[in-house]
């Protein structure tokens, strides 16, 4: 049994090169083409025929290493070599379609041309998503069944790609969707609820939730009946319309929507205008402030998310507050290195997880104001202490939020004007911080209101034994940078419908949260309080966990949370289950919460250990491994084969297929390939994961074996003229069971063997045949497989003129046999005139391609002259005999 070297076809995994040139020829009218049409990819042909390519575009050319056209070096084409093998290069160039036809299509060294904007991937891959930054991967590890199942998110913008396998079985079609499909919508849906089918980074926060779509052509909320009909409980809004610093009708509408749909949480991105300033309103002209991109983001009963990098530093372009009236905006930040769109998506996904666990515990969905209070209260403090206009109340901490729900650390209540309600908690010893956040859904204000707050509640923390009172943190909203950048102060809040109070190192004892209806214009007003207690001397590993993946030879960011007073800890790792430890750093800063570890070149399982004084904390066992490269070997009518490169030290692999919603294992094998019968394996999507000890390493990219550019063993068979010989280039998908490669040539009545390769050892094979006969030289490949099965390629033709401009064949010809006229220069228009021995012109036709066929039956037996007339060249006359 022979297996191929996967490196030999690694660049072809996503490049379909095998197709029927004869079919492609019919896609062009004769006036459109200038060369061998089989060099075009089918996708490119379709785009050109439909007139979809205008101006200069990016293309990719596969070029014979022995025959690189000099034209490619011209600066206008901006050529860049992006791949190289022993027999071919792949160049990226910029050109017009006309330049492709006139310059590159006729070039003998050009083997294949495809559109450069075509992304070589099966599904959307997110290479910059970091769910560990907001502790979402920690939830996936600790609560594997907590995935958002049973709750529905709506992505309000254009429509995501509903064929994306990361949404398989979970996309809900509705009448709300846009007809336009966008990659941005796909990215948002993936970050929120991707199933992790295409790659481990395509696993979203709430990977089990259902996904729907709503068009953002209408910037107002969807109808309440629509939210209720489709059971939508979170709607993500990652879009903007430019800096608008006022409370508009849309803001009022979203405030009303939150009240009318008690469990529906609207999450907005703050915008990517962080360096801009509003042109109107109180903060007009203040660069870097009040630059949220849309008046709808001024709503009070929503969450607006800003963007931070993976180390909780707010991105410069992340739009900042305050709101038009001085309220806190954004309310919190989340990871979003590509902008605030992604930050909003992660907040949406975390909200779905909170709804899921609340529903598990209480059989109903939670109120949206409760979820908002939990998210704000559980956030990690960042930026200025407690709250500011860049970070809001801090950075999203999904794990803390889940713990809040799980421990029932929240209260609900209601107050009327002048009334109050109190709640008591007990604070034990060893607490470093007490934090509580009050949130209520405030009635909509009148658009353009100077102050949007309608019902003004007051929030206070009281130590019962002493009667000491702590008020919430409040920011200055005076329109000057010095004021807006001031740290928060404790005072009564008269602007926000969310108030947070904290107390560092509280004394043990009983404390009371008191909510007072300072000015409740329309009441009674319902409210929610979320609270938490941070303990001293706690250490928790947050990344990697047992379900995470570390990659060798690159920098990996490992994360933890520590409340120890010590400044530093000693960081070590072990690859033998803790029997021996190797030092990473003897004094890492505990307060940073992360360390960038350049991992050695291992394929192994490992542990991390942090030593803090006399305390040692060991992580989950995790894997260190590279992704396993895969390739399709063949796609035959009854079966298919794919294979992979083995990783060092890995003996066994687990093979996955895509089921209704998610990947599921179908086999474990020690081989580096698998052959599957189509009748028993209807799925088109597969992946492979290494088994490292008793742990599973990172899976390969999931691929559709039918779109990998391989048919039944054959990837491509190309024929080209090389002097007086023919060059035949064959690329196979696999050598599995291939005993012999036979080159066959048509002799006029049958294909006969011209050359052979027994027991081939390479996927790429080049053959030469000569001398050629004048006219058409037709070749095909025959593969002889073990067991006697034969596989045939399509026929490829090499035209040989031997110095002549035109060739007529067959000559002599039978009376009812078609006659072909070959042109060595199909760029020059020509007319064929058939003249009998009496000097009469009896037939005429244009010659506008390399091969032009005269219909059979046009000529009787006898002697004829074929005169070929050209505008600027001498006529050519050929003698033809019909028998």
Topology:
Blueprint: H1 21-25, H2 42-49, E1 57-64, E2 80-84, E3 88-95, H3 97-104, E4 110-115, H4 136-142, E5 152-156, H5 183-193, E6 210-214, H6 224-229, E7 232-237, H7 249-260, E8 265-269, E9 303-308, E10 332-335, H8 340-362, H9 368-378, H10 398-406, E11 410-415, E12 420-427, E13 431-439, E14 456-463, E15 469-470, E16 473-474, H11 481-484, E17 489-490, E18 498-504, E19 509-519, E20 525-535, E21 539-543, E22 549-550, E23 555-562, E24 568-574, E25 582-589, E26 594-598, E27 604-612, E28 615-618, E29 622-624, E30 630-635, E31 639-644, E32 652-658, E33 663-669, E34 673-677, E35 685-692, E36 695-696, E37 703-704, E38 714-722, E39 725-732, E40 738-746, E41 751-758, E42 764-769, E43 775-785, E44 790-792, E45 796-800, E46 806-809, E47 819-823, E48 830-835, E49 841-847, E50 851-854, E51 862-870, E52 876-882
Parallel strand pairs: 5-6, 5-7, 7-8, 8-9, 9-10, 22-29
Antiparallel strand pairs: 1-3, 1-4, 2-3, 11-20, 12-19, 13-18, 13-20, 14-15, 14-19, 16-17, 21-23, 23-26, 24-25, 24-27, 27-28, 27-29, 30-31, 31-34, 32-33, 32-35, 35-36, 35-37, 38-39, 39-42, 40-41, 40-43, 43-44, 43-45, 46-47, 47-50, 48-49, 48-51, 51-52
């Amino acid at each position: 049994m022979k297996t191929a070297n996967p490196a030999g076809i690694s660049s072809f995994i996503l490049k379909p090169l095998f197709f029927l040139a004869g079919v492609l020829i019919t896609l062009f009218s004769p006036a459109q083409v200038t060369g061998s049409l089989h060099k075009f990819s089918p996708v490119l042909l379709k785009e050109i025929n439909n007139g979809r390519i205008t101006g200069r575009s990016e293309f990719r050319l596969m070029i014979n290493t022995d025959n690189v056209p000099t034209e490619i070096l011209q600066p206008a084409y901006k050529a860049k070599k992006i791949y190289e093998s022993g027999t071919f290069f792949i160049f990226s160039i910029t050109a017009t379609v006309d330049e492709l036809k006139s310059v590159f299509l006729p070039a003998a060294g050009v083997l294949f041309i495809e559109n450069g904007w075509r992304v070589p991937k099966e599904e959307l891959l997110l290479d910059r998503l970091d769910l560990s930054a907001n502790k979402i991967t920690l939830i996936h590890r600790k609560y594997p069944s907590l995935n958002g199942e049973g709750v529905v998110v709506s992505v309000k913008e254009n429509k995501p790609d509903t064929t994306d396998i990361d949404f398989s079985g979970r996309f809900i079609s509705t009448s709300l969707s846009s007809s336009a499909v966008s990659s941005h919508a796909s990215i948002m849906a993936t970050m929120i609820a991707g199933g992790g089918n295409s790659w481990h980074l395509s696993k979203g926060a709430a990977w089990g939730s259902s996904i729907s779509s709503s068009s953002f052509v209408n910037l107002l909320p969807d109808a309440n009946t629509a939210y209720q009909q489709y059971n939508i409980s979170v709607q993500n809004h990652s879009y903007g319309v430019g800096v608008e610093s006022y409370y508009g009708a849309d803001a009022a509408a979203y405030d009303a929507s939150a009240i009318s749909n008690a469990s529906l949480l609207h999450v907005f991105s703050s915008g990517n205008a962080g360096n801009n300033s509003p042109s109107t309103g109180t903060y007009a002209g203040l660069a870097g402030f009040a630059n949220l991109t849309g008046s709808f983001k001024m709503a009070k009963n929503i969450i607006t998310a800003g963007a931070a990098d993976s180390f909780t530093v707010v991105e410069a372009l992340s739009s900042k507050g305050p709101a038009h009236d001085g309220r806190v905006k954004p309310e919190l930040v989340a990871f979003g290195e590509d902008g605030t769109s992604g930050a909003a998506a992660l907040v949406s996904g975390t909200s779905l997880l909170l709804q899921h666990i609340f529903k598990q515990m209480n059989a109903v969905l939670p109120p949206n104001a409760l979820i908002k209070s939990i998210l704000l209260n559980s956030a990690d403090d960042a930026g200025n202490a407690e709250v500011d206009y860049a970070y809001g109340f801090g950075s999203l901490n999904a794990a803390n939020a889940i713990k809040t729900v799980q421990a029932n650390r929240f209260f609900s209540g209601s107050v009327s004007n002048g009334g109050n309600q109190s709640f008591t908690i007990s604070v034990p010893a060893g607490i470093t911080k007490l934090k509580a956040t009050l949130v209520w859904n405030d009635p909509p204000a009148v658009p353009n209101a100077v102050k949007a707050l309608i019902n003004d509640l007051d929030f206070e923390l009281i130590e019962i034994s002493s009667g000491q009172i702590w008020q919430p943190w409040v920011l200055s909203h005076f329109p000057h940078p010095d004021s807006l950048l001031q740290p928060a102060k404790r005072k009564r809040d008269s602007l926000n419908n969310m108030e947070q109070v904290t107390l560092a190192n509280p004394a043990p004892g009983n404390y009371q949260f008191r909510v007072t209806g300072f000015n409740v214009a329309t009441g009674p007003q319902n409210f929610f309080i979320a609270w938490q207690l941070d303990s001293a001397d706690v250490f928790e590993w947050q990344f990697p966990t047992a379900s995470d993946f570390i990659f060798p030879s690159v920098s990996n960011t490992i994360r933890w949370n520590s409340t120890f007073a010590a400044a530093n800890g000693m960081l070590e790792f072990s690859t033998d289950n803790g029997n021996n430890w190797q030092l990473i750093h003897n004094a890492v800063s505990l307060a940073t919460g992360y360390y960038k570890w350049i991992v050695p070149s291992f394929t192994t399982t490992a542990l991390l250990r942090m030593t803090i004084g006399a305390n040692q904390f060991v992580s989950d066992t995790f894997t260190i491994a590279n992704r396993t490269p895969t390739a399709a070997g063949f796609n035959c009518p009854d079966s298919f084969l794919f294979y992979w490169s083995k990783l060092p030290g890995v003996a066994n692999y687990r093979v996955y297929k895509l089921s209704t919603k998610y990947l599921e294992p179908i086999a474990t094998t020690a081989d580096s390939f698998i052959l599957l019968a189509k009748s028993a394996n209807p799925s088109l999507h597969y992946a492979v994961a290494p088994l490292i000890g008793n742990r599973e390493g990172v899976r390969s990219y999931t691929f559709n074996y039918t779109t990998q550019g391989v048919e039944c063993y054959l990837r491509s068979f190309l024929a080209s003229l090389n002097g007086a010989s023919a060059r035949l280039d064959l690329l196979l998908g696999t050598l599995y069971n291939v005993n012999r490669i036979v080159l066959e040539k048509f002799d006029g009545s049958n294909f006969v063997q011209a050359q052979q390769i027994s027991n081939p050892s390479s996927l790429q094979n080049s053959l030469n045949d000569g001398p050629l006969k004048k006219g058409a030289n037709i070749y095909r490949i025959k593969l002889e497989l073990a067991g006697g099965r034969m596989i045939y390629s399509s026929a490829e033709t090499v035209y040989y003129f031997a110095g002549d401009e035109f060739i007529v064949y067959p000559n002599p010809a039978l009376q009812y046999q078609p006659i072909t006229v070959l042109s060595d220069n199909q760029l020059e228009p020509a007319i064929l005139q058939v003249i009998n021995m009496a000097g009469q012109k009896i037939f005429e036709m244009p010659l506008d391609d390399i091969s032009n066929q005269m219909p059979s039956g046009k000529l009787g037996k006898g002697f004829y002259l074929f005169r070929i007339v050209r505008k600027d060249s001498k006529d050519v006359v050929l003698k033809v005999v019909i028998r």
